[in-house]
């Protein structure tokens, strides 16, 4: 058993938030609020407050909510309060991440990263997107990156699945085959 | 080392390049989160299967053993020092396999089937999964053919049958491996392929075993799977399963094979180490909860399978032949304690045990088999007729002798019958001694046992019993070779053989000295 990681602690909160948001038909709003809260939570100044043992829980939650200001609605404020009472405000980034993952799952959508040696033309990108949509059987949102060390070809990352069609990867495989 | 000229090298490289499949395929990928003591925690790898091989950069492989919600725990099979946090790990979609087949015979390989004897690559045609499920009840056949170990004391008192699992148990340095090695040497020319799995032994010890087997011409029918003391724990844990898969190749094709696990205590230690590092909860003696299953699933694969199974397995190529895999697991006890966790487990799994004792070893009785505690639960049905007939008295004589010997220490004068029994017991004990690397044929054993049974030893000095035996065997081999051949071939016992033996021994006693 691995030690309790932050994602283990964050999982029930993310699930609760997601189910509440889905019930209220407010997935987009919650997604925005949670990402704001997550950004606030990783801020160095806020962190210093949260980690300060001299301050009481109410004080910490109050400060946190003040920093977030108008960005949060009432139910989100309650959510932050609950997290604060359980001393789990530090887990907010994980909560936001897991929330996004569940949202993507709900919307049958996958984040795909395309890494190519040269910038792709929109026509090529479109072709790849159609093929991937068919292959993964999901709606996809594509982020592109350029990495000239690939020498040629593309690497497609969709979650844990990786399709390595780069020249660098092929050369690495060749060198492994020759050295074994 | 083979001589290579430059054009050959470029040919080989060309071939390899041709064979290389560079088609890009979708693979499940993860990131190494931590590397510690041969255990790797990987984030991602959502589609990994239990026991699947995982590929790390640099051609290092691992095996997934812990599947958790956010991470995968894997053992590294090989050098883990070059792995770093942040490296990628890929699924391979395969479970661990080793090469199998007749090409492996005569070779020394590691737990993954790679040759380590410097004799070049092994051209094995097939590979097979390391972890397999044992044949079920329908596929089995009772054990009724003998495995001759060539050791008088074992073949007479604790006979082993083909497909049996007979444990060899005892403290360190009292000849456990010696028994197994003798049994392997004795299989020369008998159609039993042997697999010797060395787990956690010194490299020098393994080299010694290989040399001894080569000296006695036993490497021609033997595969050695070696995972030395300096190898990673994962290799020690895997070696017995790998060896078993190599032995099963012969079992499934209607042949006979024998496998020696030397020893399973070290495998349990290696598994304990892996389990503790994977943070599985420790139980008794810090072993994980499934240490019984570790050995039971391994030993259950040693079996005798029936002709139907063999026919089905080979798709009709081999008909009417049963196959067997006999196992001789070895367990090392600490201070003779057989009630420790692993010894009790393996005793309960196997079909009997050969119990070796330090006190016997030190008093010169070698092999130091304790006749009272050693049993064979199924071997009796498989014993050669003649040995069964003649050897039946040995166990009894030794049991009575032990009781009387303890009792007679307090009595100053004994009656005639008791004294005779004691003397007979002493001679039988002496007769059961046997030198290492000198296995005996069935006929040799039959002559020795016949002489003891019929009282021909009674007037031989105890110290001279072994000399008498040697002279008798030499005499019989030169004068009655045809009788010996007949016994070796038929293995039966009838009046004709009895009279032949009687005449031979009497003539020897009348004319020869010892």
From TrEMBL, chain A:
Instruction: Provide the function of this protein.
Output: F(1)F(0) ATP synthase produces ATP from ADP in the presence of a proton or sodium gradient. F-type ATPases consist of two structural domains, F(1) containing the extramembraneous catalytic core and F(0) containing the membrane proton channel, linked together by a central stalk and a peripheral stalk. During catalysis, ATP synthesis in the catalytic domain of F(1) is coupled via a rotary mechanism of the central stalk subunits to proton translocation. This protein is part of the stalk that links CF(0) to CF(1). It either transmits conformational changes from CF(0) to CF(1) or is implicated in proton conduction.
Q: Which GO terms describe its molecular function?
A: proton-transporting ATP synthase activity, rotational mechanism
Source organism per UniProt:
Cobetia amphilecti
Q: Where in the cell is it found?
A: Cell membrane; Membrane
Which GO cellular component term is one of those annotated?
Answer: plasma membrane
Q: What is the predominant subcellular site recorded for this chain?
A: membrane
Q: Which family does it belong to?
A: Belongs to the ATPase delta chain family.
Q: Which PANTHER family match?
A: ATP SYNTHASE DELTA CHAIN
Q: What is this protein called?
A: ATP synthase subunit delta
Regarding the membrane, this protein is recorded as: Peripheral membrane protein
Keyword annotations for this protein, in alphabetical order, are:
ATP synthesis, Cell membrane, CF(1), Hydrogen ion transport, Ion transport, Membrane, Transport
**Ion transport found in the keyword field:** yes
PROSITE patterns recorded for this chain? ATPASE_DELTA
Keyword Transcription in annotation: no
Automatic annotation (TrEMBL), chain B:
Q: Site Required for activity: which residues?
A: 374
Does this entry carry the keyword Transmembrane?
A: no
Topology in the lipid bilayer: Peripheral membrane protein
Which CDD domains did the record assign? ATP-synt_F1_alpha_C, ATP-synt_F1_alpha_N, F1-ATPase_alpha_CD
Read off the Pfam families from this record.
Answer: ATP-synt_ab, ATP-synt_ab_C, ATP-synt_ab_N
Where in or outside the cell is it found?
Cell membrane; Membrane
Q: What InterPro entries is this protein classified in?
A: ATP_synth_asu-like_sf, ATP_synth_asu_C, ATP_synth_asu_C_sf, ATP_synth_F1_a_nt-bd_dom, ATP_synth_F1_asu, ATPase_a/bsu_AS, ATPase_F1/V1/A1_a/bsu_N, ATPase_F1/V1/A1_a/bsu_N_sf
EC number of the protein: 7.1.2.2
List UniProt keywords, sorted A-Z.
Answer: ATP synthesis, ATP-binding, Cell membrane, CF(1), Hydrogen ion transport, Ion transport, Membrane, Nucleotide-binding, Translocase, Transport
Q: Which residues bind ATP?
A: 170-177
Task: Family membership, please give it.
Answer: Belongs to the ATPase alpha/beta chains family. T3SS ATPase subfamily.
- Subunit structure, per the record? F-type ATPases have 2 components, CF(1) - the catalytic core - and CF(0) - the membrane proton channel. CF(1) has five subunits: alpha(3), beta(3), gamma(1), delta(1), epsilon(1). CF(0) has four main subunits: a(1), b(1), b'(1) and c(9-12).
What name does this protein carry? ATP synthase subunit alpha
High-level lineage: Bacteria, Pseudomonadati, Pseudomonadota, Gammaproteobacteria, Oceanospirillales
């Amino acid at each position: 058993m691995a030690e309790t990681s932050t994602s283990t602690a964050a999982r029930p909160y993310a699930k609760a938030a997601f189910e509440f948001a889905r019930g209220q038909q407010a997935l987009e709003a919650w997604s925005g609020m949670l990402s704001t809260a997550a950004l606030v939570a990783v801020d160095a100044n806020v962190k210093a407050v949260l980690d300060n043992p001299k301050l009481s829980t109410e004080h910490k939650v109050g400060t946190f909510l003040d920093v977030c200001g108008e960005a949060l609605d009432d139910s989100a404020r309650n959510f932050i309060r609950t997290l604060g009472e359980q001393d789990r405000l530090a887990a907010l980034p994980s909560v936001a991440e897991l929330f996004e993952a569940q949202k993507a799952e709900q919307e049958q959508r996958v984040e795909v990263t395309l890494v190519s040696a040269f910038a792709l033309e929109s026509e090529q990108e479109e072709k790849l997107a159609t093929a991937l949509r068919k292959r993964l059987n999901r709606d996809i949102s594509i982020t592109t990156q350029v990495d000239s060390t690939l020498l040629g070809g593309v690497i497609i990352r969709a979650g844990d699945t990786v399709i390595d069609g780069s020249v660098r990867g092929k050369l690495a495989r060749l060198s492994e085959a020759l050295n074994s | 080392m083979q001589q290579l000229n430059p054009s050959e090298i470029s040919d080989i490289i060309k071939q390899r390049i041709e064979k290389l499949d560079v088609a890009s395929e979708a693979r499940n990928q993860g990131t190494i989160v931590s590397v510690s003591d041969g255990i790797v925690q990987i984030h991602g790898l959502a589609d990994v299967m239990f026991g699947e091989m995982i590929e790390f950069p640099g051609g290092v492989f691992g095996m997934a053993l812990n599947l958790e919600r956010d991470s995968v725990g894997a053992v590294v099979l090989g050098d883990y020092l070059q792995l770093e946090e942040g490296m990628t790990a890929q699924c391979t979609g395969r479970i661990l396999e080793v090469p199998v087949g007749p090409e492996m015979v005569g070779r020394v390989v590691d737990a993954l089937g790679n040759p380590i004897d410097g004799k070049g690559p092994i051209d094995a045609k097939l590979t097979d999964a390391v972890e397999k499920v044992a044949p079920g009840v329908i596929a089995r056949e009772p054990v009724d053919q003998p495995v001759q170990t060539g050791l008088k004391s074992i073949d007479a008192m604790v006979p082993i049958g083909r497909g049996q699992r007979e444990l060899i148990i005892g403290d360190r340095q009292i000849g456990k491996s010696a028994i197994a090695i003798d049994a392997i040497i004795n299989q020369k020319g008998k159609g039993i392929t042997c697999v010797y799995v060395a787990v956690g032994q010194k490299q020098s010890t393994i080299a010694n075993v290989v040399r001894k087997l080569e000296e006695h011409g036993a490497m021609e029918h033997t595969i050695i799977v070696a995972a030395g003391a300096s190898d990673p724990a994962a290799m020690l844990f895997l070696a017995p399963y790998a060896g078993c898969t190599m032995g099963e190749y012969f079992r499934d094709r209607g042949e006979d094979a024998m496998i020696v696990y030397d020893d399973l205590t070290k495998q349990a230690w290696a598994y304990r180490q892996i389990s503790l590092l994977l943070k599985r909860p420790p139980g008794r003696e810090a072993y994980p909860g499934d240490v019984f299953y570790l050995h039971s699933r391994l030993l259950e694969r040693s079996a005798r399978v029936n002709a139907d199974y063999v026919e089905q397995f080979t798709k009709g190529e081999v008909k009417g032949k049963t196959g067997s895999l006999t196992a001789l697991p070895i367990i090392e006890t600490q201070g003779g304690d057989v009630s420790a966790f692993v010894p009790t487990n393996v005793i309960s799994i196997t079909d009997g045990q050969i119990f070796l004792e330090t006190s016997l070893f030190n008093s010169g009785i070698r092999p130091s088999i304790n006749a009272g505690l050693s049993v064979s639960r199924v071997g009796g049905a498989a014993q050669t007729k003649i040995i069964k007939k003649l050897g039946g008295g040995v166990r009894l004589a030794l049991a009575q002798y032990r009781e009387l010997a303890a009792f007679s220490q307090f009595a100053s004068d004994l009656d005639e019958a008791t004294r005779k029994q004691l003397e007979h017991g002493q001679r039988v004990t002496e007769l059961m001694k046997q030198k290492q690397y000198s296995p005996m044929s069935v006929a040799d054993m039959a002559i020795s046992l016949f002489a003891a049974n019929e009282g021909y030893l009674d007037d031989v000095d105890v110290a001279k019993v072994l000399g008498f035996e040697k002279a008798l065997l030499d005499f019989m081999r030169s004068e009655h070779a045809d009788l010996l051949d007949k016994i070796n071939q038929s293995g039966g016992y009838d009046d004709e053989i009895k009279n032949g033996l009687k005449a031979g021994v009497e003539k020897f006693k009348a004319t020869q000295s010892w």
